[in-house]
From TrEMBL, chain A:
Family annotation (Pfam families): BPD_transp_2
The keyword Transmembrane is annotated on this UniProt entry: yes
TM segment ranges: 12-30, 42-63, 95-113, 158-175, 207-228, 278-304
CDD domains: TM_PBP1_transp_TpRbsC_like (cd06580)
Organism: Frigidibacter mobilis
GO molecular function: transmembrane transporter activity
Keyword terms, alphabetized: Cell membrane, Membrane, Transmembrane, Transmembrane helix
Membrane topology type: Multi-pass membrane protein
Name of the protein in question: Inner-membrane translocator
From TrEMBL, chain B:
Main localisation: membrane
Keyword Secreted: no
Pfam family, one: BPD_transp_2
Spans through the membrane: 12-32, 52-74, 110-128, 140-160, 202-221, 249-270, 276-295, 302-323, 329-348
Top-level taxon of origin: Bacteria
Protein name stated in the entry: Integral inner-membrane protein
High-level lineage: Bacteria, Pseudomonadati, Pseudomonadota, Alphaproteobacteria, Rhodobacterales
Assigned GO CC terms: plasma membrane
GO terms for MF: transmembrane transporter activity
Length: 321, 362
C-alpha cells in the first residue's frame, strides 16, 4: 500500500470516526453520571434531520447546527424527565427515543420537502466546508510530512476539530474540576453526593444535557459535514457503535478517541475493500461490518480486560425519607 | 402508601398511558396538516372494516404475539431482551433450513419441524448473551443489541454467499417446496365453505401463536420454573437466598424468550414469503417491546396488545395509501406507547395513586 492510499484511508477514518467520537463522549458524560443512554442513535438522527432541514430552508449551516442541537437537547430533556424525575427505566426510555426520532424525522421530512423523508441537497453555506490550516498549501510539496499535513490533518470541517478538542476538554472537565469530581461521584454513589448537600437531580440533568449537546453536534456533522443533507435513517447504527466504543474505552475520554478512531478505521476499510484477502482466508465485507459489535461483545465478556460500568448506572436515585 | 385496587393497576393505568400516547399522536397528525379524525376512520375501516383488512391485521398480530411473549418472558426474570429482532432473524434461518431440507409431504409435518427449527435457532442466538450475562456479567441489553447487528450481517452473508440459488441476483434463499406451504386462514375458511380474507397472509400459525400464549401462561404461573423465574425477577438476592440458581434461571428464561422470538419466523418466512429474504423481521422484534410493556407481560395482555399493534400496522399502511401521512406514523405511535407505558409510567401512576389514597382516607 502506498502513502497516498494510506492517507486516503486514514482521512476517511477521521471523517467517519468524528460522529462516533462526539456521540461517544456524549454517552460518557451521561453514563458517568449514572444515566444509561441507548437513545444516542435517536438523538443523533433527530439532530441530523433538523440541522439538514433548517440548513436547507435557511441556507445557513449555523442555523442548521443550532436547530439540530436544540432538537437533540429536547430529546435529552425527555430522557431526563423519564429517568431522573419519574424514575422510569432508562433503557426503555432510550428505546422509545430511538423510535420517536426514527418516525418523526420521516414524518416531518415528508411534510416539509415531499422527498420521501430526505432533505434537499445542501450547497454552499448550507454545509460545513473544509478548513485549510495555515501553511498547508506551501508545505504540500515537502515529502511525507507535507501530504500528511495537507491530506490528513488539514482540510476537515470545523466540527472535526471541535470533536478532537472535546477529548482533552472532557478529560480536564472530568478529572480536574470540582464539577467533574461530583459528576463521577454521582454515577458511583449518588447517596454520598446527596449527603454532601449537592443536588443529585441537578447534576444528572446537567450531564444529560451535555450529552444532548454533543449528540446534537454529532448529528449535525452527519448531515452537514460528512454528507450534504439528511437521508432517512442516516445514522445507520452509529449511536450503537458509539456505545460500543464507550465500553471499549471503559468510560474514559482519551481511550474513547482511540476506540472511535479504531471503529472509524474499520468502517473506512470496509467501505474501500469489499472482501479482504488475508493470504488464503477471505474476510467478507459483512464480517468487517459486524466486527465492532463482535469486539464489543468480546470486551464485555471480559476476555480482553474488564469493562466495569459506573456502579450506580441504570438506577434512578431515590432520596431516603 | 395505600395500594391501588388491582383493576386500576392492570387496566386503568395502561389505558391512561395509551390514551395519552394516542392523543399526542393525534396532535402529530394535526401538526403535519391532516385531520386526526379522518385518519382514525381510514385506519379503522382499512384494518377492521373488511375480512381483507382483518386478514392483514391478524397476520401482523401473529408476529407480534410471538415477539411480545418473548419480551414478556424475559421481563418476568428481570431481563430486558431487546434482541428479539436478531433472534427472529435467526429463527428465519432455522425455518429456511428445515423447509429446504426435504420435499415435505404435508404442511402439518413441515410446520412442526419448522417450529422446532425456528425455536432452536432463536434460542441459540439468545443463549450466548444469556450465558455472557449469567457467567461473565456482561449487560444483556448491550449484548442483545450487538447480537441484532451481528445477526443481520450473518444473514446478509449467508443469503448472498451460501443460500442464494445459482443464477439469482436477489439476496434470498430458494423458494420453499410446495409441501411446506402453510394453509392461510382464507384456505381454511374456504374449506368450511365461506369466503374470508382473500389474498391476505394470515395463516395457520395464528393458532400456534395462541397456543404459545397458553403455554407461556402455564409455564410462568403453573410450574416450578415459572415461579423461580418470577421470584428471580422480583428480587435476585431473595431468589438466591431461596436456593434459585441465577445462571440456570437466566439461561432458561432467555432460551424460552429467544425460542419464542425465533418462532415468529414460522408466520412471516414460512407462512407469508415462503423463502428467506433479507430483513424479513421488519422491526417486529422491537414492536414486541411495546407489546409486552402494554400487555403488562401477561399472555392475555400480550394478545390484546398484539391485536392493537396489528391494527396500527395495517391501518398505518392504509393511511399511507390514501393520505400523505407516511407509514412511519406507526413508529411514532409505537415510540409514544413505549415511552408512556414503559418509561413515564410513574408520571401517570403517581397522581392516580394519590387519587385512590385520597378516596380511601375519606
Amino acid at each position: 500500500m502506498d502513502l497516498a492510499t494510506l492517507l486516503q484511508i486514514l482521512d476517511s477514518t477521521v471523517r467517519l470516526g468524528t460522529p462516533l467520537l462526539l456521540a461517544c463522549l456524549a454517552g460518557l458524560f451521561s453514563e458517568r453520571a449514572g444515566i444509561f443512554d441507548i437513545g444516542l442513535e435517536g438523538k443523533m438522527l433527530m439532530a441530523a434531520f433538523f440541522s439538514g432541514a433548517v440548513a436547507a430552508v435557511t441556507g445557513s449551516v449555523w442555523l442548521g447546527l443550532t436547530a439540530g442541537v436544540l432538537s437533540s437537547l429536547l430529546l435529552s430533556a425527555i430522557h431526563g424527565a423519564a429517568s431522573i424525575t419519574f424514575r422510569g427505566n432508562q433503557l426503555i426510555s432510550g428505546v422509545a427515543i430511538n423510535f420517536l426520532a426514527s418516525g418523526l424525522t420521516v414524518l416531518i421530512g415528508q411534510k416539509w420537502f415531499q422527498l420521501g423523508g430526505r432533505t434537499p441537497s445542501l450547497t454552499g453555506n448550507g454545509r460545513f466546508g473544509p478548513i485549510t490550516l495555515p501553511f498547508a498549501e506551501s508545505l504540500r510539496e515537502v515529502p511525507v510530512i507535507g501530504p500528511v499535513y495537507y491530506e490528513l490533518i488539514s482540510g476537515h470541517t470545523i466540527l472535526v476539530y471541535v470533536a478532537l478538542a472535546a477529548v482533552p476538554l472532557s478529560w480536564w472537565l472530568l478529572y480536574r474540576t470540582r464539577f467533574g469530581l461530583r459528576l463521577r461521584a454521582v454515577g458511583e454513589n449518588p447517596a454520598a453526593v446527596d449527603t454532601a448537600g449537592i443536588s443529585v437531580l441537578r447534576l444528572r440533568y446537567t450531564a444529560v444535557m451535555i450529552c444532548g449537546l454533543l449528540t446534537g453536534l454529532a448529528g449535525a456533522y452527519l448531515a452537514t459535514g460528512l454528507s450534504a443533507g439528511f437521508v432517512k435513517e442516516m445514522t445507520a447504527g452509529r449511536g450503537y457503535i458509539a456505545l460500543a466504543a464507550l465500553i471499549f474505552a471503559k468510560w474514559r475520554p482519551v481511550p474513547a478517541l482511540g476506540a472511535t478512531m479504531l471503529f472509524g478505521l474499520l468502517e473506512a476499510i470496509a467501505n474501500r475493500y469489499q472482501n479482504i484477502d488475508l493470504g488464503g482466508v477471505v474476510l467478507p465485507v459483512q464480517f468487517m461490518q459486524a466486527l465492532p459489535y463482535i469486539l464489543t461483545v468480546v470486551i464485555l465478556a471480559g476476555f480482553i480486560g474488564k469493562a466495569t460500568p459506573p456502579r450506580a448506572g441504570g438506577a434512578a436515585y431515590v432520596k431516603e425519607r | 402508601m395505600t395500594k391501588m385496587p388491582r383493576w386500576a393497576d392492570v387496566a386503568l393505568i395502561p389505558l391512561l398511558n395509551l390514551v395519552i400516547a394516542f392523543a399526542i399522536s393525534g396532535l402529530v397528525i394535526l401538526a403535519i396538516g391532516e385531520n386526526p379524525w379522518t385518519a382514525l376512520k381510514i385506519m379503522v375501516s382499512g384494518a377492521l372494516g373488511s375480512s381483507y383488512g382483518w386478514g392483514f391485521t391478524l397476520y401482523y398480530a401473529t408476529s407480534f404475539i410471538f415477539t411480545g411473549l418473548a419480551v414478556a418472558v424475559a421481563n418476568h426474570a428481570g431481563l430486558f431482551n431487546i434482541g428479539g429482532e436478531g433472534q427472529a432473524t435467526l429463527g428465519g434461518l432455522g425455518v429456511a433450513m428445515v423447509c429446504l431440507a426435504l420435499p415435505w409431504p404435508h404442511w402439518s409435518l413441515a410446520l412442526l419441524a419448522a417450529s422446532l427449527g425456528a425455536a432452536a435457532f432463536g434460542a441459540a442466538w439468545a443463549a450466548i448473551p444469556a450465558w455472557l450475562q449469567a457467567k461473565r456479567g456482561s449487560h444483556i441489553v448491550i449484548t442483545t443489541i450487538m447480537f441484532n447487528f451481528i445477526a443481520f450481517s450473518l444473514l446478509n452473508y449467508l443469503l448472498v454467499n451460501v443460500l442464494r440459488p445459482v443464477g439469482s441476483m436477489d439476496p434470498a434463499s430458494a423458494r420453499f417446496p410446495e409441501g411446506a406451504a402453510l394453509p392461510t386462514l382464507n384456505d381454511m375458511a374456504a374449506g368450511l365453505g365461506f369466503v374470508w380474507g382473500r389474498n391476505t397472509p394470515a395463516n395457520v400459525s395464528l393458532f400456534l401463536a395462541l397456543l404459545c400464549c397458553l403455554g407461556v401462561w402455564a409455564i410462568i404461573w403453573k410450574t416450578r420454573l415459572g415461579y423461580q423465574i418470577r421470584a428471580f425477577g422480583k428480587s435476585e438476592p431473595a431468589a438466591v437466598y431461596a436456593g434459585i440458581s441465577p445462571v440456570r434461571i437466566t439461561m432458561y428464561a432467555m432460551l424460552i424468550s429467544g425460542g419464542l422470538a425465533g418462532m415468529m419466523a414460522v408466520n412471516n418466512v414460512m407462512g407469508e414469503a415462503e423463502r428467506l429474504v433479507l430483513n424479513a423481521v421488519e422491526g417486529a422484534g422491537f414492536i414486541g417491546i411495546a407489546v409486552a410493556l402494554m400487555g403488562r407481560s401477561h399472555p392475555f395482555g400480550v394478545l390484546l396488545a398484539s391485536l392493537l399493534f396489528g391494527f396500527l400496522y395495517q391501518g398505518g399502511g392504509e393511511l399511507a395509501l390514501w393520505t400523505t401521512i407516511p407509514r412511519e406514523l406507526i413508529t411514532v405511535i409505537q415510540a409514544l406507547v413505549i415511552l408512556f407505558t414503559g418509561a413515564l409510567d410513574n408520571m401517570v401512576r403517581a397522581p392516580v395513586e394519590r387519587l385512590f389514597a385520597g378516596r380511601g382516607a375519606r
